[in-house]
C-alpha cells in the first residue's frame, strides 16, 4: 500500500516592531494558514518551534529581532499571492489621519469587513468592496503599508458599526496603536456620539439602563428590564435635539456607556422609540414604503482620553463628521449640526 508523507519545511521569521509584545501562539496562528490549534500546541510541545534557537513555550512574549523557527507541513504556511492594491482607485472619506491612526466616515450599506456579525448571507460579499479592504489599499498605495514587510500585522479596525449605519470608524496603522486604542475602548476612554431619528416625541436627557442578550439563531438581540441568566447590562444616554411635529420624529443624540451589538436600535425600540427606517426591531414597514432604505443612525463624533504613551497627543481631542451625508437631518431643518459639533 502506498503511503503519502507531508513535507515538513522549516520557516524562519524575524520579529519586527508590529509582531512584538504578542504571545508566541498568537503569532503562529497568524503566520500559518488553517493550522488546527491542537497541532499548533503540539508543535510547540514537541520542540518543532524555537525562538532564538531555544525551546519555546506558548505564552512566550516576542520581542523585536527575535527569530522564530517553525517546522510544519508546507500546506500550513501562508504562501498565497499578496493582494494587488495598485488598481484600487476608491478613496475612503477621511475625517482625521496621522502616522498612527485614521478616522473615516463609512457610508450606509457598506460592510466593514466580510462575515461581520455572523450574518450567513454575507459570505458571498465581495471583499474588495468592504471598508477594511479599501482602507488597506489606501495605505498601501500611499506607501504606508506593505504586506511583504509584515509577518503578522495588517491595518486593523478598532471599532465596527452595522452595515446600514453610517459614520466614524477608527483604524490603527500599527500594532502598538491598535493595542492602546483597544485598551482605551475597553476602559470607556473613547467617547463616541451618535445621531438618530426616532418615532415619537422623546424629551429631555435620560440615562437608560437595561439588560442585553444575543439571539444567535436570528442574528438579533433581546432587551430586558431585569437581569436574567445570559444577559449583560447596557447603559444608553439619550438627549433630544429637535422635533418634527408633522412627522412625529425626534432627533436624538446618543452616547454609549456600554457598546453591545445593536444596542441603540434595540434599546430605543424597547422603550417605545424605534428608529426611522429600522427593520429588525421596529417592524415598521411604512418607513420602507416611504423610501427610507436604511436606519436613521449615524456615528458623528469620537473623543479620546489618553495619558502617557504613543497616542497621548490625542488626549482631550474630539473629531466629528461634517454632517453633509446624513440624509435624515433634512427632516430637522432648524437643527444646527455645525454649531453642535464644532464643524465649520
Topology of this protein?
Elements: E1 8-14, H1 24-31, H2 37-45, E2 49-51, E3 54-55, E4 67-73, E5 94-97, E6 101-106, H3 131-142, E7 156-157, E8 166-172, H4 175-186, E9 190-199, E10 205-215, E11 220-224, E12 232-244, E13 249-256, H5 263-270, H6 285-289, E14 297-304, E15 318-320, H7 337-341
Parallel strand pairs: 8-14
Antiparallel strand pairs: 1-4, 2-3, 2-4, 5-6, 6-8, 7-8, 9-13, 9-14, 10-11, 10-12, 12-13, 14-15
Name the descriptors.
single chain; alpha+beta; Structural Genomics Hypothetical 15.5 Kd Protein In mrcA-pckA Intergenic Region, Chain A; Pseudouridine synthase; 3 domains; 7 helices
Largest sheet: 11 strands, mixed
What is the H-and-E element order?
Answer: EHHEEEEEHEEHEEEEEHHEEH
Number of DSSP-assigned strands:
15
> Looking at CATH, which topology of the largest domain would you report?
Pseudouridine synthase
Total number of helices: 7
CATH architecture of the largest domain: 2-Layer Sandwich
The chain-level structural class is alpha+beta
- How many discrete domains? 3
CA radius of gyration is 23 Å
CATH class category name of the largest domain: Alpha Beta
- Specify the overall morphology: elongated
Low-confidence stretches: 1-5, 116-123
Query: Mean pLDDT, nearest integer?
Result: 89
Q: By CATH's scheme, which homologous superfamily of the largest domain applies?
A: Pseudouridine synthase
